[in-house]
Amino acid sequence: MTLFSLIVALLIEQVRPLPVRQLVLDPLRRLSALVLDRFNDGQARNGTIAWWLIMLTGVIGSVVIFQLLWAVHPLFAFAFNVGALYLTMGFRQESHFFTDIHLALRMGELDRARALLGEWRGGQYFTSSSSEVARLAIEQALVGAHRNVFGVVFWFIVMPGPSGAVLYRLGRFLGEEWGERRDVEFGDFGRFSRRAFEVIDWVPARLTAASFSVVGDFEDAIFCWRTQAMLWDERASGILIAAGAGALGVRLGMPVHQSGEIVERPEMGVGEEADPDYMQSTVGLVWRALVLCLLMLALVVIAGWVGR
User: Fold this and answer.
1) What is the value of pTM for the model shown?
2) What SS3 string covers 16-43?
3) Which residue segment(s) compose the domain that 266 sits in?
4) How far is residue 238's CA from residue 220's CA, in Å, rounded to a whole number?
5) Is there a contact between 250 and 271 (Cβ–Cβ < 8 Å)?
6) ∠ CA 186-188-190 to the nearest 5 degrees?
7) How many domains does the chain have?
């Protein structure tokens, strides 16, 4: 059921991309606001309690619903799996930005590409060159593919029903919504959520990087992973970007012009400057990595059938 649920959810999402803001982010933000109103006192202890409250409700609730539906009929449980995956996973949640930036660079419309990049990543890129725009778009695509697809897939496979997918999506949301806030009034409330998502994402990020390595230039990907990833501020993103850049044979990272300032960043990857051709190669790399994951899962399923 796991493999078929993944395939069906991916097909549905390709035909009808998820309106993530309306169906996922807005409801979660309303829930977050409700919890913050009751628990947020700027202390890490209450942040930990609130995090566990939301996570346990979501994960245990999804398990209970799945088991009840399974007791009625497995097809209902299968439909619930697919629906949960559709809401938590999606290649096309952000890929339209990448596609539009790629097309704009191909057409020589650098200003439009800069505007799209700013809308996608946040910030302003008025002085960014074509190579900078392509570089930042590739980085965002590598990390986004992991967090929108590969991370969800890993936990969906590991845990019963759709509870793993719910765990990852909620953990990511709270890690970003609470963990990245730095305002004084919020205090240390989001500290636990940030660290908790780092733990949740520890294994999936490394498996995704390994997948990029296997389907790309393996030697360069492993070299960049081992020697460059630790230089990045956010470790999981550094691993994904370093391995992806090495697998593609392109140089990422490096200083960029953002919001009127030069942001210093370490160089990641090896090879040539990023350009629209490498953006197209990035799409191929991600799809090959996904096919590899599905094939590995299919082999496990087949082995289980044979072993019965």
Assistant:
1) 0.92
2) CCCCHHHHHHHHHHHHHHHHHHHHCCCC
3) 2-307
4) 15
5) yes
6) 80
7) 1
